[in-house]
Amino acid sequence: MSPVDPTPPDADTTGTHAPNDANYANTSGSVSTLSKLTGKGLTLLKSRLFLSVGAQGLVSGFHFALNLLLLRLVTPYDYGVFAFAFVLAMFASAINNALISTPLTVYTPVLKDETERAGQEAMFSTLNLLLFGFLIVGGLIYANVAGLDTGISLSVTAFVAVYSARHYSRSAGYARMKPLITASGDTVYVVTGVVVVIALLLTQETLNISSVLFALCTANVAAMAVERYRLYGSQRSWLSFGKITDYGTVWLQSRWALAGSLTTLFLAQAHSVIITSTNGPNAYAPLAAGFVLFGPVRVALLTWQNMVKPELAVALSESRQLAVREQIRTTTLLMVGAVLAMGLFLWLAWPFIFKFLYAEQYADHPMAYIVALWSIITLFAASYNAPAAALQAMRDFKVLAVASIYGAILSGVLVSLTLYYFSPETTLFGILAAEAFMAVYLTHTLYSRLKEVPEKTTP
Q: Which of the residue ranges 3-12, 259-268, 277-286, 373-382 would you say has the lowest mean pLDDT?
């Protein structure tokens, strides 16, 4: 029998092929192991977690590439306007997250009755529409009173309102435990955004910031349409609205979430608000340019929070405290490790990064110093992301609000003082102090809360 003879080893009776038998067994074992690994790999690639994170990775990559493009093609003033528009959008999204999206993902998943759940979803949908209208009207009134440029004011207002509405749309998929719907919306957002931005590059001699913001509005609307259709099909239920009179019970807790969300965002963005308000977009642009490298990390952290809150809420409702503690601990270590690895990469590649990204427009600013501070700030932000998600799932919004109020006061005071006495880049020390405070406070609080409720044991 030749080495490639397909006859099985047990067909040979001479005993002279024993070594070949061993080789066959070893080969079969290797093939079996490889098949198992391949199967596990394919399962991971098809998993909802991988696809969800992958789709959000596309969004982060798109925003990252767009920021790099704008840093090279537009003036620091225009980039400052663009970056501050995102800051305003984050504040609007924080309001949506606190009053509408987080209650949607925490309250509705535990409802077993479909009629009751549909009523709750309709109520939150109505509130989302009201917030959208408020942002549009409020933005236009402020732009008119402040005498801002018409094109910029309209584009910023539209972008902020649509960005907030999209946050709710994304959360609806998570609330239904269907993150792949949100992933499909993210994919549509990226594809549409890329197409429209390329069209702008081909048709405009100088890239206009207002046009870019309107392009992102278009992409968000397209994504929402896909998400709504995949959730409800062609039925009118995706347009259904409900009474908001039942929101009173939710408000008792969401008001603390609102205070917590706004103050949490302010403690991380006090420099952008204070510097832009007092010194203008030009002074804010270098700090925003340094933050560009960490934008995808922040988005990934928020995505993980939105996706895991319903699951944590269910686990906590079943008193599986030990599982929650283990998940929080493991996730925090992974997040911190990823940020540390990123910081090491930036340090090693800094000469190339500076030459490619900052040398032309920001050579007069201490960009290495700014990026180093952002690395440390992001490290602390990553360390308390998981504890914050767990506290939201526990509906412990008051604790989050109190912590972020202290952090916002600390951030606002230090940013104001450093800006007054020193240069704008020193304001990042105020942000760093606030993020470090939040990391220690929330982690300690979470583990104290988890110890208060005994682990449910099965007989």
A: 3-12
- pLDDT for residue 43 is more than 80: no
Q: Please give the Cα distance from 395 to 103 (Å, whole number).
A: 9
Measured at the alpha carbon of residue 387, what is the angle toward residues 383 and 393, in degrees to the nearest 5? 150
Give the torsion through C-alpha atoms of 162, 108, 325, 304, to 10 deg: -20
Query: 455: which DSSP letter?
Result: P
| DSSP string covering 369-385 | HHHHHHHHHHHHHHHTH
3-state class (DSSP) for residue 227: helix
* Angstrom distance (rounded) from CA 301 to CA 377: 14
**CA separation for the pair 5, 336 (Å, rounded):** 54
Q: Is the pTM of this model over 0.85?
A: no
**How many residues belong to the chain?**
459
Contact in structure between 83 and 273 (CB atoms under 8 Å): no
Q: Are 90 and 270 in contact (CB under 8 A)?
A: no
- Provide DSSP, 398-437: HHHHHHHHHHHHHHHHHHHHHHHHS-GGGGHHHHHHHHHH
Instruction: Give the model confidence (pLDDT) of 192-206 as tens digits.
Output: 999 999 999 999 988
Residues 384-441: pLDDT tens digits? 888 888 888 887 778 888 899 999 999 999 999 999 999 999 999 999 999 999 999 9
**Number of helices (H) and strands (E), helices first, in the chain?**
16, 0
Burial 36-75 (b: 16+ CB within 10 A, else e): eeeeeeeeeeeeeeebbbebbbbbbebbbebbeebbeebe
In whole angstroms, give the CA distance from residue 8 to residue 25: 11
Q: 450 and 324 in contact (C-beta within 8 Å)? A: yes
Whole-angstrom CA distances from 55 to 51, 210, 214, 309, 396 are 6, 26, 22, 18, 30
Most confident of 16-25, 170-179, 338-347: 338-347
Compute the distance between CA of residue 272 and CA of residue 266 in angstroms, rounded to an integer.
Answer: 9
What is the spatial distance between Cα 457 and Cα 459, in angstroms, rounded to a whole number? Answer: 6
